[in-house]
Amino acid sequence: MDYLDTSGIHDPYHSRRPRTSAAATAGLVLGIIAIVLNALLITLPLGFVAGVLSLIFSLLARKRYRLGLGGLLASGVSFFIVLVWLISLFVPLMADPTLGVLQR
User: Fold this and answer.
1) d(CA 94, CA 47)
2) N or C: which end of the chain has fewer CB within 10 A?
3) Whole-angstrom distance between the N-terminal and C-terminal Cα of the chain?
4) How many CB atoms lie within 10 A of CB 86?
């Protein structure tokens, strides 16, 4: 046995399963971008698209490598921000009696 031969020793840094994947990283980055874009009302459509892409990449990473939880959480937060914006925009419009949205 050679001195540098480590074939019988388990090395956690050189395992076969990757520690990260490009899909998980892309999902997390797009999720953070979606949160920032959705926090601003003017860039809401771009943030929604980034959130959908984050969800797709994170689900792919979750399915293949069991990674991508951060991207899933970030896309969930971005969709929650979209929901809050939509509620804050449409509820006052529906409740305003001068507009007649709820009246038939």
Assistant:
1) 25
2) C
3) 88
4) 11
